[in-house]
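Support request, please re-run this one:
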Amino acid sequence: MKNVNKWGLGVAVAGMMLSACTKNFEDLNTNPQVSQDVPPEMLITQSEKGIVDRDFDWFYDAYTYQMKWMQFGVAAPGASPTGLFSPTNTNDFYNAFYKNIGRNLVEMEAVVAKKPEAERGQYGNVLAIAKILKVYSAWRASDANGSIPYTNAFQSRSDANYTPTYDTQEKMFPIWDSELKAAVATLQSGLSGQASPGNAEIFYSGDINKWAKAGNVLRIKLAMRQLKRTPDKATAIITDAMAVKNGLFESNADEWKFISADQSFARAGNWAMDNNPLSASKNMLDYMYNNSDPRLGIFYEKNSYTKELVDSLVKGGVFPSMQYNERRYFGLPASPDRRNVKADTVIFNVKRYTMTFNGKEVTRTLDTISAVQRRLFDLDAENGNNNGARYTQPILSYAEQCFMLAELAVRGIISGTAATYYNNGVEASIKAYDDMGREAKIRDYAPLDAAAITKYMANDAVAFTGANDVLLEKINIQNFLNLFKSPWEAWGAWKRTGIPKEGGILAFEPMQVAGQTVVIPRRWALPQPTIANQVNWRNAITEMGQTGEYGNADNDFTGRVWWDKK
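Re-run finished. Output below.
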């Protein structure tokens, strides 16, 4: 991977790209997008940047909704839980796919196609990497939207097609797998004389072997999305991908992720949780605390009650008999209605204490509740300015691969020892988050003790023991925890497996508003295009509605897209 300064990237590519209206496909044909003199291998940077530079998504999608839906976090004391089930200003990755990510990747192909025939061959690997990026981005846009324009989405400039049709997920999944398989084959074919993007490629610096693994593992992930809908086809894809030589991640060093430079990226602004402060949810935190999860301090901050602070409260006469509690991790109930329960009211209130020291009154604001680890998401949090911290964004991790293989082994779809896959996944996830915490320079960071992993995995709630249904629950709890830094992925994993679940090993709390149990949203509303393409958009919604699971209208957030079968 490559450490990248966001602003340096912005300057480097400014002369190559022109912006366009997000939803207006006709605008994509207005002006030439990329200079034909730009080396094609250098055009990949802008699209990759578009995948990870997602502060708008973090603010509106993750902090406001997904992290609350998945009970990673709860609106902090003093903050309002309103809007929990009424998504607005969300789903911007869909727009970004058409505005720059996918559009620029298609332009790379166009630039290469206009090169003299004798020169085109040197771009085989670069275009294969671009294809993997395009499939990933299209899938991510579709995952919670359903049908999207894909097969003819970027033809406005080439064919004057301003009204692309919407492809169903049932159609796109086979296309995506075919494109990924071809890209992997190209990268593993040993092409000579290839142009390389080098450090302009911000994930693997153009390492084709690692890109081949990423593309192949992505095939498995997409196949698992289809297991309920088309189990035979999904199984065939998984079997084929497993047979690819050198086609799997072997350690955290292989995984697909981004690590920023130590300046400019993920600092303040929309990255901050200041306007959407999140506290730990009780069930999640208690599960981690009770099982001595080594990731606890990476996910959540200790509360305000240090030994020194407790002593000052005693000395200041606020709580003369108060005793210091060594447990500094406490969470809030996730259900919005719990804020109105008399017994819970005190923990949802902001606590301000006035005390007298040396004849002067001092007011302190304290919290018994643990906040979500802010510096993991905003490097400026907790006075972190100019602290040399670096931001990490996983895309597809070695730990997630291990959990997928463990599940597939338990289900009998692949060979191999499920326990080994599972144990490797737990260890890899813990070590990956340890790396993230160290890079983010979180406060109170302590280097990982290897013995802590052994202790954690010996707990009954974690150890790979039990009947198959218990094993599958444990696997998917660990996969869910591993996706903490990618809450949109955790949302997808939860929809696919139903884990965490109510009454489960990691208990999912029923969400109630005004006394009524509320269904967690399962999709976004498919963004409305300009008038020219309204017919195709409405046809797509009607077509998705024919499954009986999509819902009655395009804004029925509790409905399901094609792969999300009951």
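Strands lie at 3-4, 73-75, 256-260, 278-280, 351-357, 360-366, 392-396, 512-513, 516-517. Residues 102 and 220 are 22 Å apart (CA to CA).
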